[in-house]
Structures are given as C-alpha cells and as structure tokens.
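A quick aside before the break. I want you to see a complete sequence-to-structure record at least once, exactly as it would be stored in a machine-readable document. Don't worry about memorizing anything.
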Amino acid sequence: MKIYSYRGDHEHLPENTMMAFRQALLNGAEGIALDVLMTRDHQPIVFRDEALGIATDAIGLVRHHDLSEIQEAEFNEPYTKLDQHIPSLKEYLTWAEPLPHTTILMVKNAKFPYSNFEEDLMNCLADVEGKERLLLACSRLSSLRLLHTRYPDIALGLIPDTLDEEIIAKLEELEIHYVLPTLTQTTRQFVELCNAHDLQIMTQDVSTPEQMQRLQELGVKSILVTDMATARAALDVKKMPYSAEALKFATETEARQEKSHQPMQSLAQKAKNLTNVGRSRKGKGNFLAVALCMVLSVAVATFLAGLFMNLMKGVLK
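That is the input. The structure line, written in tokens, reads:
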C-alpha cells in the first residue's frame, strides 16, 4: 500500500506549508497531496480553505486577495513564531522538480465557480518539469475534460460525490484511472466496482490504524494520511521509499531560513515545541500580566485616594 501525506506532516506544523511538505518526505511519504485554490490575480496557491481566517490572521476569502497580500498573512497560534507563508503552487512545483515523489493536486473549484480556473492552473503547469509525477484531482468532470485536452499526459483523478456506471463510462472516455473517495465512501461494494473497471482507489483523510488496516484488507492500494508515523507503524512499513541522497534537496531550507542556517530537523523540533508548550507558556504569561495589572491598579488607586484626601484637608482648612 502506498502512503501519501495529505497536506504535509501537520501534526506539529502548519498544514500545506513548505516546512510540512519537507518533513513529510523525511518521515517516509511516497507522495504529497495538497489543496489548490486561486487568488484574485489568478495565481494558484496551496491552501485548504477559502476563508483565510481559519488558519491565518488575514481576513476574507482567498479569491478576494492578490497573491502578494495572501503571502503577508501569518499563521495563527501556535505557529506565529515560524517564518512560514502560504506558498504559491509555482513555488511548490519548483521545489518538487528535482525530488522523486508524486504530487497530487486537489483542485478546490467545486463550491465556487472560479473564472478561468483551469486555464490559470494549466498556465502554471506549462513550464514545469516532471509532469509524469503529477496527478490532478477534481470533483468536476468538466474541469478534468479541459485538463485532459491541454495536458493528456498528466494523470487525472476524480473526487467522486457518487460513482455509477454512467460516471465510469465518462472516466474511461477521458482515460481517467484514479478515484479519490472519502473514507466513508470506501466500502467493499465501492472497491469491487472500481476493481471491475481497473480504477485505482486513493482514499482520503485516513487517520487511525484501524482505518488503515481495514482499507488494506479491502485491497485499497493508496491512502492519503495526516500522520506518517502512525501510518507506517500501523502498516508495519520499515523501508523508506526514497534514499537520503534522493531527498537531499528536500532538507534544504528556504531563502528566509538560510540566514539562520537552521536544518530542517531543527525547525521541525521548534514547531513541535511550540505546539506542545505554547499554550502553557501563553497561560503563564497571561497570569503574570493580570497580576501586574492588579498591582498597578491598586497602587494608582491608593495614590489617587491620598491625593484626594490631601486636597480635601486643604479645602477644609
């Protein structure tokens, strides 16, 4: 069974960031699945939700902001001290070019009808090397049709709402061989239907060992997980998919981080420490702040009371 990291290693790191993607590969991911949205200036970015405020200090929706504005946003606690930004898809693809892993682009254009989403995405892919290691996944067959017309050599996958013989016929017409169902959709009947038509299943949002083992028993070949360590332990995977030499470039830091010359492992540990103790530190800081405010308040009140009494004595005299 192939194990893909969904949105990078985000147990202790902000999801869909370059740091999370690097750590996922170092933790043994065979590939990375990431979410793609479009900005106001038609730049595809790697981000999960339309609402920026869910994960960052920015306000509004992704489609209401330009790329430069979005990349100024800072991630919410406990990741504010990490020098990370929302990456553009081009930034990710440039980083991934010399690496051996497969990338699954989860195109998020189902809820909102973006103008020219497919064209803008294809323009971003025009000069990318290693297209044979890409898989474009979408819930809209119309989008997949456009993508297939422009780049027939890029693998495509359907994120299905449902799957029946009519939809399967359309997938065969477009030479689509992958489906990315949710965990609840991946039943025995679903697996048997896909197997009958040579469709490869890549189940999303798999998180517990029990879920992983059940899917393995059903014959599912690929899963998208949120925690690589849990997945490898549950499936008893010992061998790393890629050599240290093949992943050498993945360990290099971003331009912003090179100033401090921190290796990737140090940054990951820093993030883990933030998530583990950030709340307790924050709570301690709040307690000290409240205590200090109380002391200052009492001191000011005492001073003002004494001043008022002296004034009253002067008036009475």
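Two observations worth writing down. DSSP finds ten helices and nine strands in the chain. The first strand starts at residue 2 and ends at 6. We'll return to this after the break.
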